[in-house]
Amino acid sequence: MEAALELQGVSKRYRYFSLEPLSLSLQPGQILGLVGPAGAGKSTLLRLILGLVHADAGQIRLLGQPMPTAQAQAKADVGYVSRDMGLFGSATLDWHMRWVASIYPGWDEALAQRLLKHFALHPGQRARQLSSGERMKALLLLTLARRPRLLLLDEPTSGLDPVARQEILGELLAVVEDPERTVLLSSHHTQDIERICDRIAFLDRGRLVADDDTDSYLQRWRRLSLDLPVDGVLPDVAGTVELRRDGRSAVLLTADYQPSLEAALSAAGITVHQSQRLTLEEIFVASVMQHRQERGE
Question: What pTM was computed for the model?
Answer without folding.
Answer: 0.89
